[in-house]
Design goal:
The protein is an alpha/beta fold. 47% of the residues lie in helices and 13% in strands. The protein has two domains: 200 residues, no CATH class; 252 residues, 3-Layer(aba) Sandwich (Rossmann fold), CATH 3.40.50.
């Protein structure tokens, strides 16, 4: 069932009448229905695809009227907010378009049916599809330029002909020429800010699960296209933090991938079971069936809002960023685009090219992780160690990062976890915004339940 149905009960109750098939417009895509469905799925679900094909995917080219309507709505959304809508925002945007008479009422049941199909289409081979769309658009532009040049030949206007041909040759996918006109975009930036303020759209960030923490974060959570990291001394609970924040995102309807380079999938799953079931790790086996019931109820809730949580584990020091890219792509073939990528943790990843320099190896891994965040329009969350001074400090600062200060330069947000023995005994800790591109430097005093693998239960104070 699509999120459109969840958002608007009237849609779910509408009869499953089919809209009349529209005639294929002149100059339409020379692709079969299956490939058009693939293009449409990418055009309504994948921000990177929408960015790179801006101006190339024309709604009128599609045979299905529902595809044309949805793609037009997504393109309007992208012009304002520079991203494709998530499923809930898409449902709201479609409903607003219907209310504004931009979508014919009789087309609504067909949109519901078609969106359900598009949400199940594999999103593999995005680059190939972009190349095909770009080649078709360039071919069409060249044909149009040649036809427009015929009357100019008689006039001897060769400068205009040259201009038309050059423009046609330049048609193609946008890879490195994403122009942003600062002055011209102020209206769209204003619309975006107003929409965030009024709740028309939700912040682009991936929520931490705690509103009292999100409000201190520029994106209202972990930033997309950004690398965030938790820093702490050995055995402080960095993995517990990563698992807790990953679980929270899953329960809120985000698609989350956790890659563990430290413990097995089974251990990670046990930790999340303890967290969700609010049961100490040590007594999970004594309450097996009660735990199972709680997990199944939580899964039903998360799945109902689109949440996905996938766990993978690999040996420490062997896993490379290129392998993470391939893993992400395999999930794309199943139609899963991750919002949050949790890597536990970057310090024990393997660089693409191992050198004799610890600093160069570390820098390579961290740069690759940030690049993956940018390429995938996802938030990447990882962890790192403090150095010896940081381990002894009451509050670890950015300068207390272990081995390589490049981590601080590369990460968009670095949070240090801190706690004295007395604080740990009292079930408390402090999360300090040690380095950030956009957030103010604050410290959150937080409550914890470590036996239940809950790194964070609430904010106790801010300083």
């Amino acid at each position: 069932m699509s999120n459109v149905e969840e958002k608007d009960p009237q849609v779910a109750a509408a009869p499953a009448a089919k809209a009349e098939p529209a005639e294929k417009p002149e100059g339409g895509f020379e692709f079969d229905e299956k490939f058009q469905r693939k293009i449409a799925a990418l055009a309504v679900r994948d921000t990177v695809f929408v960015q790179r094909t801006e101006g190339l995917v024309i709604p009128e080219y599609f045979e299905h009227a529902a595809d044309r309507a949805m793609i037009a709505v997504v393109q309007d959304f992208y012009k304002k907010y520079k991203k494709a809508p998530d499923p809930s925002s898409l449902a709201q945007a479609l409903k607003l378009a219907r209310d504004d008479k931009k979508i014919r009422p009789e087309l609504w049941p067909d949109i519901r049916d078609r969106l359900g199909k598009l949400l199940s289409v594999s999103l593999a081979d995005r680059d190939f599809v972009i190349d095909q769309v770009a080649a078709f658009a360039r071919n069409t532009a060249m044909q149009n330029a040649i036809m427009a040049s015929i009357p100019l030949i008689d006039k001897g206007d060769y400068a205009k002909i040259e201009q038309l041909i050059k423009a046609a040759v330049m048609v193609g996918a946008a890879d490195d020429d994403n122009e942003y006109d600062y002055a011209a975009e102020i209206a769209n930036r204003t619309d975006h800010r107003v929409a965030l303020l009024t709740g028309t759209i939700k912040p682009d960030g991936i929520s931490t699960g705690f509103a009292d923490m999100d409000k201190h974060m520029y994106h209202g959570g972990w930033g997309r296209k950004e690398l965030s990291a938790i820093m702490g001394r050995a055995k402080f609970g960095k993995s517990m933090a990563l698992g807790d924040f990953g679980k929270n995102a899953y329960m809120l309807g985000y698609k989350v991938l956790i890659v563990s380079l430290e413990v097995s999938e089974r251990i990670y799953a046990d930790r999340i079971d303890a967290n969700i079931a609010e049961t100490a790790m040590q007594v999970l086996k004594q309450n097996a069936f009660a735990i199972k019931a709680k997990i199944e109820a939580a899964e039903q809730k998360a799945n109902g809002v689109g949440g996905v949580l996938k766990l993978h584990a690999f040996a420490s020091g062997t896993y490379k960023p290129s392998q993470l890219r391939r893993l992400i792509e395999r999930y794309r073939t199943r139609g899963i685009i991750f919002d949050l990528l949790v890597v536990d943790y970057a310090d024990i990843m393997c660089p693409e090219r191992v050198t004799d320099s610890v600093t160069e190896n570390s820098k390579s891994v961290w740069l690759d992780l940030r690049a993956i965040a940018f390429e995938q329009n996802a938030a990447v969350l990882t962890a790192t160690q403090t150095n010896r001074d940081g381990a002894k400090a009451a509050t670890a600062k950015a300068t207390d990062v272990a081995e390589d200060y490049n981590k601080v330069r590369i990460a968009d947000l670095l949070l240090s976890g801190n706690a004295t023995e007395a604080e740990i005994s009292a079930g408390e800790a402090r999360l300090h915004f040690a380095a950030s591109r956009n957030q103010a430097e604050v410290t959150l005093r937080i409550a914890q339940k470590r036996d239940q693998m809950k790194f964070f239960t609430k904010v106790l104070g801010v300083s």
